[in-house]
Amino acid sequence: xxxxxxxxxxxxxxxxxxxxxxxxxxxxxxxxxxxxxxxxxxxxxxxxxxxxxxxxxxxxxxxxxxxxxxxxxxxxxxxxxxxxxxxxxxxxxxxxxxxxxxxxxxxxxxxxxxxxxxxxxxxxxxxxxxxxxxxxxxxxxxxxxxxxxxxxxxxxxxxxxxxxxxxxxxxxxxxxxxxxxxxxxxxxxxxxxxxxxxxxxxxxxxxxxxxxxxxxxxxxxxxxxxxxxxxxxxxxxxxxxxxxxxxxxxxxxxxxxxxxxxxxxxxxxxxxxxxxxxxxxxxxxxxxxxxxxxxxxxxxxxxxxxxxxxxxxxxxxxxxxxxxxxxxxxxxxxxxxxxxxxxxxxxxxxxxxxxxxxxxxxxxx
Length: 365
Prior knowledge:
The chain has 365 residues and is mainly alpha-helical. It has two domains: 46-89; 105-319, Orthogonal Bundle (MetI-like fold). It has 14 helices and three strands. It has a three-stranded antiparallel β-sheet. α4 (120-151) crosses α5 (153-166), α4 (120-151) runs parallel beside α7 (186-209) and α9 (228-256) packs antiparallel against α12 (283-311).
């Protein structure tokens, strides 16, 4: 027996190991965060003053750099004054996990400090609507154009050179133009999401469509398929599952433009909430709001992944199918390996280069 494939190079990992690794992917960063937050000698670069002692400008609850605290303590002792007291803490912008976990609830239940400010759920709803309309608009145009570019060289040569050029232009650079054209409310924010995803969408989907087996297209053309029938009956069915996966990935790309888009014009959505809470030094709410974006994105992606198994059941069956090791290889390579691994048969006839059976060697009389 060979060595077990612990890293999953050739085979799928066992279900229990996959579950353990999935849990560890979240536990390990949480453990590092907890160590930084709760273990004083790991970092904790500040001292929170509990007793000012003989230092006149120290106050209870004041946080000061450890080096400055040590220097002032030494000066107070040298002058015959009482030494200040305190304990090590992290900066206020490094919140511990328990405070952030509590903020996941209190951020929803606490009313805004000003009556004109939105609640957290209103801010989240605003951001989700911005993402939705920006991504839907880019998909309505980007998916068909990507399919055309991937299928026909005419459209690829006509569109892709300019798209390749345009996709390197940062979407936030168009913020001022979007505000000048569309105003200061939601339309320029939606436009930023559109610009950030549309051009990538065309290229990614076009590359996916190019992976269609040419034999399928040739067979369809032989049977008389052409024009839109070739697209509808061959190209789209052959690539629809992979395009769906591309759309899931590109939706995550759209979320990365959200914060930049929401500062264009009037600040709104979850970005407004984050900036306001940072201004009030409620950094636990800031971490919670950022975490909520990740939770919404991950939940959406998992839901879409499950929906993909329902819409495209043949992909699920293909993943579950188990094949022998040699059969997963190309046919020629598999046959070669089987021939090399099988011992030669003594009963098999042999021939020389001339095609004749070799004669046995005999000693001369």
